[in-house]
Description:
The structure is a homodimer of 281-residue chains. Chain A is of the alpha/beta class and 281 residues long. Chain A has a single domain, classed as Vaccinia Virus protein VP39 (Rossmann fold, 3-Layer(aba) Sandwich). Chain A contains 11 helices and 7 strands. In chain A, strands 3-2-1-4-5-7-6 form a 7-stranded mixed β-sheet. Chains A, B: It comes from Cladosporium halotolerans.
Amino acid sequence: MAQPNPHNTYLPGYKEVGHHEWRTAENSAPYLLPTLQSLAETNPSLTLLDVGAGSGTITTSLAKYIPQGHITAIDLSPDILSRAASHAASVNATNITFQPASVYELAQTFGPAAFDVVHAHQVLCHLDAPVQALAQMLAVVKPGGVVAVREIDMRVWSFHPFSETMRAWVEVQKATHAAAGGSNEAGPSLVAWAMRAGARREDVKASMGTWLYATEEERRVWGTSFRDRIVGGEMRKKALELGIATEAELDRMGEEWQRWMETEDACCGTLHGEILIRKPK
Amino acid sequence: MAQPNPHNTYLPGYKEVGHHEWRTAENSAPYLLPTLQSLAETNPSLTLLDVGAGSGTITTSLAKYIPQGHITAIDLSPDILSRAASHAASVNATNITFQPASVYELAQTFGPAAFDVVHAHQVLCHLDAPVQALAQMLAVVKPGGVVAVREIDMRVWSFHPFSETMRAWVEVQKATHAAAGGSNEAGPSLVAWAMRAGARREDVKASMGTWLYATEEERRVWGTSFRDRIVGGEMRKKALELGIATEAELDRMGEEWQRWMETEDACCGTLHGEILIRKPK
């Protein structure tokens, strides 16, 4: 039976994805790697479902760890999947199938217990029914398999230098994210969500991870993305619609991100909740 | 010449240290371990200075990685060092010398270029002259050696469940920490502090790490510590002196920590800045 289907679009609507392509299994899914390697030792031809694969850099990076395994990478957007497929071809990752699909319809799309590992990175934080999505992920993982999820705590930004303008930017980031149906508290909520999706506490292993933008290259990639979203992107439009900042204030935030990325000792860190759910045999 | 000596006491004045003894090299200095192992391969008898070693659990844990090396562990408090020495004896860590000393007087205590590695965990955040402390650490490390520092961003707490009472607790935590001369922004300031202490940007490698309290045991150890500090410890006394919370409000925070630690899906994460400074040869 079809699941009810809440928001079935990727709401942030980013047009540029340079900052997404910075992502790898090593910087975005390190908590999964020891488990993945251990599963692959027992079963080299394991199957992995990558939910919300986006531009596919985490997917191709995961593929390296299971050269004899197979990854099914899904996303709502055929456009981003075709970009991901080009990326996969460019790095000779041949063990990935790309397929448009919704996380809310995993069970009907793939059938129960179809994968050894089901992975999502920064997906549930965009959904207005994350528990329902997690229940679908649990439904398609095999008994003895693992669901792995990592999501940001959008309330938490660790900046240097910090300023009132950056504080205001964090508020805009949170308000526009929430207005688009996302959760600002996804990271630390993952254990609670997993239990509401049917997992037992003893089958959930929680950890936290970080992203840090500190090198000149990282500051450029991420600073440009944050600057562009606030001076001309969807986020600016939404902030103005919500009436939470003026044009002038948003311009100042863009200038602040520009200054930040040009500052040699600047950094910005984010905090991410991580869970590994072992499905009982 | 003696350095000027700002605050030369450990101001938080915690009486119980159970939560300190939870700390290990693996959960509190993972960013240092690959470098430490690589240095030990070239020079098995390397020397490490552990600054602000406290109850010594990180120290003994680091000692396992350099069995042929030697650690000098310093702290301001002879009492805590004697506890640390007992702990070291109990785990048969025989390659550690414990010695009372101040981070502000490292050069005069040990002479220049005395150690291959100089490490501090959650020390600079308590000091009112962290750059001066870092300059001393750089002074006593050998050319080609490494200074390793990890410090919390005290503004950033990732809770589930979250509440207005927890938000108020974070404000009390920050205000009492700052009133004691500490920095709430130590974590993301480390690169900037390193450069002010004389390091070149290209010799500083920044990363971030986390602590997560999520298992029943972790919630008990840390929840008890946070509860006790707010219902009866130094933090309560300071909060009342500062006039930032009433007795009733502080009691409610204690009750909230009690509830939090009894909540099966609760967690609390913190974010820590980390730097490795390679001293040029």
